Amino acid sequence: MAVNALGPYDFPSADRQENFGDDMLVHVLWANNMMFCSAACFRAPRAMPWEDFKAQLMDPWAASDPDYEPSAPKGWALDGKPFNPEPGQSLAELGVVHKGLITFEA
Amino acid sequence: MAKLSMKERYSLLTRDLDWTPTYVDPKDVYPYTRYEGIKIHDWDAWEDPFRLTIDSYCKYQAEKDKKLYAVIDGFAQGQGHLSVADARYFNSLKLFLQGVTPLEYAAHRHFAYLARHLDGPGARFAALCQSIDELRHCQTEIHTLSQFNKYYGGFHDWSRMHDRVWYLSVPKSFFDDGISAGPFEFLTAISFSFEYFLTNLLFVPFMSGASFNGDLATMTFGFSAQSDESRHMTLGLEVIKFMLEQDEGNVPIIQDWIDKWFWRGYRLLGLVAGMMDYMLPKKVMSWKEAFELYLEEQMLNGLFPDLEFYGVRPPRHVEQAIIEKEYVSHQVYWILYQFSFAAAFNTTVPTDEELDWLSASYPETFDRYYRPLWEKARRIQDGGGRFFFQGLPQLCQTCQIPMGFTEPGNPAEIAQRHSEYKGERFNFCSDGCQWIFDREPEKYVQAWLPVHQIYQGNCGGATVPEVLDWYGIEQGSDNLEYLTSPDKASWDEWHAPAALPGGGK
Amino acid sequence: MSTAKTRWVGVDLQDSDDTRMLVEAMEVDNPDVTVRHMPGIVKLQSATELVIKRETVEEKVGRPWETHEFQMNIVSYAGNISEWDDDQIVIKWEH
């Protein structure tokens, strides 16, 4: 259903991929830890290898909880489907979409 | 000569001053009231029970202002700020000044537009009075709350913060959604849904909160504004009935708006839920109690049976709001607590007495899900730290709140919904927010989402200090933990026992 | 036969000296009214309707009183303002 408007109403999306160049927004949710009120949102290069994404972005954030162990995450999922990232695989290769969601438990 | 009755006077001084133009088509004089699909056949059917004319309006509003400013002056002269329950209370006022006062101004502007662009003179006059009311509310709020700026952080730059700061995009986008809609949707959204259906859930927590916590000035402002609100409520109820009665075809359009604006308003009021359960040292009532009284009892059991007559049903997604009354306040304050490094107010772990009050008020959920979080936050604090979310949150595309809401009935599972539009993904906190997006995606894809804007480099820089600077937030005095804040230090100093004469060696 | 929930008609007034007289007047004209005092507010409720009569208020306050003055006391209301003229204000649900 379209917007009811006085005239043509077609404006660009504020967060489209091209506004982030070669980067994307990626969300990470620590699913079974209520200490974090929500998933986190990161900006990361689409070509960023998984091990760098985890070590440089995800782990420092998850360490907001002093009980976090970087080796503990398991039960990974990408947009609801089981996910087994290899260290060298890039986010793009792994099928992470712009504004997509990675989930883990620990 | 006999004096005119109220009815005659009202008629002569409002609608009888109207005329049908002859040099132009009336449709050209009022170009905005047809495109939404709402059909009005007879504007004269508009009823205004208050029957105010401009002379009585001005007389009574002036009297209200005189009474209020006398109290504000007395409060300031008597160092009234020192008599509030605790400096922690001021954080609720910071939220109000930053979040609500700018909406009053926007309402003033938009009702002025309606005072010009509605076809019927009765409706135009009601809108004109409301426009002046809202400007008065904005001004009196600024006057009432700015006096605290002399003593406490967070009050100094509300207008700039409203336009830039992450949690303030929630009220800002709510109102922007309304003022960019057509006149009938705006009236449904604001006059009906916000100022009638949901109004008590905004006003009672803040104003009774002021009263319970010794804030005479804000409480007096609240009463001064509330007497105007009874006219606003009446306008809201009248506009809904008027539209529903004018044409059967209006009913489904209005139902959709009732559904949309209930949910948008309800999510916005999550901020109030968190405030009333956590920011008031002396509690008025719990969010759950307020919701049961003002929404379930007064509205769902009182108002909606009345509207059933027209074929209107209670808003969709209201069942989720009813389920969420058991925990939404905890979810929202938990968000604010861990992000207050980037907020223009302080937060803190509730005291033991407060934790017990929360347990008693929320027997189904608090001890099971939330007390453990607060206990852990306190352990971190006792160890010299302070729990903060060290990163940026996932935001809902529609309500723009960090996605801390959960599957209905399950506080442990964060809710995730998403839609795709023109190949791009959008995320939502709930079915309600997703439904709103899906019916008007062209609108919501334009949303200025604070987290995404920071990542696009539009908020002053890539680091927290640069963003806070752009926000206008003064690091160390507006933000962070209450217990180590300048507000608390000042409060303790001003309430220290007086030194004995002679130095007391 | 089902038991319908009571649909309360109500008005919340500021707890001021003027309101004290107004409440007395409303108690005269609304025999089934319940009056509750909360901080700063007086809540009046009725299962049927609430009526404010100018004449009764004038008797209580001891001076001329016009119904428009009611705006100075009101905080909120539940129901419909069904009538408001020189002599009375009526609040009730329509349907």
Give a written overview of the molecule.
The complex is a heterotrimer of chains A (106), B (505) and C (95). Chain A is an alpha+beta fold. Chain A has a single domain (21-105), classed as Roll (Ubiquitin-like (UB roll)). Chain A is 12% helix and 25% strand. Chain A has a five-stranded mixed beta sheet, with helices on one face. The relative contact order of chain A is 0.24. With 505 residues, chain B is mainly alpha-helical. Chain B has 22 helices and three strands. Chain B has helices at 6-13, 26-29, 54-77, 90-99, 101-117, 121-146, 158-164, 169-179, 183-197, 199-212, 216-246, 250-278, 287-308, 318-324, 328-338, 352-361, 366-382, 431-439, 441-444, 450-455, 464-471, 486-494; strands at residues 392-393, 417-421, 424-428. Chain B has a two-stranded antiparallel sheet. The radius of gyration of chain B is 24 Å and the shape is globular. Chain C has a single domain (9-92), classed as Phenol Hydroxylase P2 Protein (Alpha-Beta Complex). Chain C contains two helices and seven strands. Chain C has helices at residues 17-29, 54-61, and strands spanning 9-14, 34-38, 41-46, 49-53, 74-78, 80-84, 88-92. Chain C has a four-stranded antiparallel beta sheet with strand order 2-3-1-5, with helices on one face. In chain C, helix 1 packs across helix 2. Classes of the chains: A alpha+beta (106), B mainly alpha (505), C alpha+beta (95). The interface between A and B is large, with 43 and 55 residues.
Instruction: Please identify, by name, the CATH architecture of chain B.
Output: Orthogonal Bundle
User: Separation of termini of chain C?
Assistant: 20 Å
Largest sheet composition of chain C: 4 strands, antiparallel
Gap from first CA to last CA of chain B: 83 Å
Number of helices of chain C: 2
Q: How many domains is the backbone of chain C divided into?
A: 1
Radius of gyration of chain C: 13 Å
Ranges of chain C with pLDDT <50 over ≥5 residues? none
What oligomerization state is this entry in?
A: heterotrimer
The overall strand count of chain C is: 7
Q: Quick one: how many beta strands of chain B?
A: 3
CATH superfamily (homologous) name of chain B: Ribonucleotide Reductase, subunit A
Query: Which CATH class of chain B applies here?
Result: Mainly Alpha
Number of helices of chain B: 22
Find the CATH topology of chain B. Ribonucleotide Reductase, subunit A
* N-to-C order of helices and strands of chain C: EHEEEHEEE
**CATH class categorisation of chain C:** Alpha Beta
Structural class of chain C: alpha+beta
